Aspartate--tRNA ligase, cytoplasmic
Amino acid sequence: MADAAPPAETPVTAVPPVEGEAGEAGPSKKALKKAEAKAKKEAEKAARQKAAAEREAVAKAASQGEDNAKDSYGPETQETIEKLPAALEINLKTLGDEHIGKTVELRAWIQNSRLQGAKMAFVELREEGNWTIQGVIAANADGTISKQMVKFVGAINLESFVRVQATVEKPLEPVKSCKVSNYELHLTKVFVIAAAPQMLGMNLAVANRPIANFTDEEAPVEEGVEKLSIAPADELAIPTATMLTHLDNIVMHKRSAVQQAIADIRIEVKHLYRSYLRDRGFKEFEPPCLIGAASEGGANVFRLPYFEKEAFLAQSPQFYKQIEVAGGRKRVFSIGPVFRAENSNTPRHMTEFTGMDLEMEINKHYHEALDIIEGVLLHILRSLPERCAEEIAIVRSVYPSEDFLLPEPGKEVRLTFAEGQKLLREEGPEEFRNVSDFEDMSTPQEKALGALVRKKFGTDFYVLDKFPSEARPFYAKEDPENPAVTNAFDCFLRNQEVLSGGQRINDPVELEKRIRSKGVDPESPGIKEYIDIFRQAGVPPHAGAGFGLDRVVAWFLNLPSVHLAAYFPRTPKRLSP
Ligand code: ATP
């Protein structure tokens, strides 16, 4: 086989050695000993003869071109499927002692293989979730497993998808290189359902290494990456590939244990978000992606032809969740795509990401909403280490990170924007000695403040409240006691913003006034329709927030880029796959 890799360790197998037979006892002690020695000799002779006969049979079969196993291996066809004897279908995850000695059937990828001489081969078989098991195949005397079959199995291209039937055995020692280490499969049938090419564009070992470079314009393939399909024993000798190579080889990118783990953590974040909110009376809804007017003033919006008109892709579900509240829902949330036509080529930005939004009616204070928002994030961050311990460990083996520091319950950190700026001025780096309470923060400022908060309060999660009016959109409600600031906040994870939220203006007169004060025409498309929502009927005071699922996953795991947390990252320069 072209690019079979010898597994790092010699596989341990329970293929039984040829054994002799016991002798019979004689009447006296001396005679007994003699008989014993004779029996031993005979047994050894018999074993030698048996082994020689086996060798001869295999050699004969091979030399004569006979192959008694020819129906047990090869490319899978409808005929091979129909001829296959029934066997218990298993998943590696659920393999147990009850399967030992039984014939089972499995569909899996060939992750690694190694021929040992002409009569034995070892393979690593992998199922979803990085479940791997060692498979062993050894030519036998009766030819039901032939030398040709062994050779075929050892030569299957890596990452081919196969169907095997096998007997489950216990290996003599645990197979350390496989996730399922306490069992091995003694293969009796092997059919290739879908063959991989002889040379993979990127092999699994490379796919599992940290990404070298996230620039989209970089040369597509690093020297040697394409050629390498064998994982050397020394991991550091495995080259790394660029994001571009990963995305050009999206199938292998996704097959890597690290990407599978990130995707599983992402699913868990979504689940935790949804269940927390549902338990608190929130109702899910789906906002539209296609909209008729650019929602937030028209900047950074994707335009597309729409019959005789023009349509836009929604930059946020903001207005729609407010319409849901105006329409009689007390608490709503959504999870869906959000589009930003920003030419931001940074590790924090994508042109399409998954927004997790919520909006709720408030009774007396917008902190009722902040309590929920902070609560849902803390619930996610506190639950993940336990619920995804294995996945987090896999990610850390590729992208190392320290434990995410969380505040003790009741000791959550909420600073006002002004308090944050004061901290930066007094204890931050020199360049932030003069930061203003009335200008938005830059990314370096956010990072410096996050580092100070971590040092001072021992948390990687905190809230910054009361953003200056200048830094917030027209719909943000001003603080009645200090109109220079708004009832609006951001949340930070490992020094980076993941969420913006706050109270919205629900009175159409106040809204129109504020829109004018921002220099925006209240009659302009999109804006007029927005104000009209509050003119149609009395809308209760409400607040909410929007956060990026991709960023929550990426910063929780301390990934070098948000692109790694997305299934199919979209950037200004990349629209495929
Ligand atoms: P930034 O200043 O980082 O560009 P923003 O202030 O434009 O973000 P918001 O409009 O407040 O972000 O969006 C709410 C949340 O959506 C952000 O906190 C972030 O988690 C996520 N988000 C915003 N823009 C992007 C993007 N381009 N790619 C990925 N996630 C994003």
About this structure: The domain at 70-194 is CATH 2.40.50.140 (OB fold (Dihydrolipoamide Acetyltransferase, E2P)).
